[in-house]
Design a protein that fits this description.
This protein has about 325 residues and is of the alpha/beta class. The protein contains eleven helices and twelve strands. The chain is globular, with a radius of gyration of 20 Å. It binds adenosine monophosphate (AMP) and magnesium ion.
Length: about 325
Amino acid sequence: MIVLGIESTAHTFGIGILKDGKILADIKRQYRPEKGGIVPNDAMEFLKSVKEEILEEALKEAKLEIKDINIFAISQGPGMPLSLHIGMNFAKELAKKYKKPLIPVNHLVGHLSIGLMLTEVKDPVFILATGANTQIIAFEGGKYRVFGECLSIGLGNALDKFGRAIELEFPAGPKIEELAKKGKYIELSYVVKGMDVEFSGIVTQASNLYKKGAKKEDLCYSIQETCFAMLTEVSERAMAHCDKKELLLIGGVAANQRLIEMLEIMCKERNAEFKVVPIQYSGDCGGQIAVQGFLEGKNKKFSKKETENLDINPIWRVEEVEIKY
Ligand code: AMP
Ligand code: MG
């Protein structure tokens, strides 16, 4: 079975093609604002402008023609409504034109599923640390459940926001990581509430310290140490609570070597296995949607009406997804 997955929840348009459990193509392009944060309308225009060429490139990479595709899959949500519409309309057009089923999947579950497929872990605690989202998730009682999460902004967005305050370009995560290597610790608030983490106050605090003359390098080091320690603490607690012996790190922030190092130390102390999703597949990509489409589509019966009536779901939480495969 060949599945073509389309990702279009925020700033990335991606198409992944999966055949017999192997990713044949994973092509994506990301909208980058010239200045400041994401402008939803500009992101939408960007996604619209690249969708056709990405489809062409993905098919070429996979050495397939569009008529070879058995199932289309689309990330239905959560995400930014304007971006979601671009992907959904494109997917519906393709499914209709080529008379193939269309599977709507949850973007977050897609992140988890591609992580499981590409690493050897079986039943981990997941840390999903993306731009917009930071969640500690585990599979319990037939569902993915969120054990802890960010109360306001996600870790990636927190780093990007702080980056803007110290005049770094978007995305700031990688630059903060570089600067942090030359920094010393300045105390910042450590905000863990139960199993949840709160980053926005820390961003404000660090940004204010910068205005008062603190060094960029020291603040980068300190924001990383503080936020990553918070995440390490709640992940460890989730592992103890669920009695899980594996930890899997996913999301764009998984590129950060210092975060990896901290989690590695924690897992080693608990005698647990720690894995990171390969970076190409750890941020938003079509591959994650193709993998999820395959899992949900392999035994499903399709109705044409269902496809025609499909709509986006911008606030779809991971616990609401039925896992039936
Ligand atoms: P995603 O939403 O999963 O595509 O991830 C994007 C986020 O990952 C952005 O907020 C980036 O700043 C962040 N990011 C990327 N590379 C790094 C890094 N090396 N360290 C920290 N954050 C990063
Ligand atoms: Mg994502």
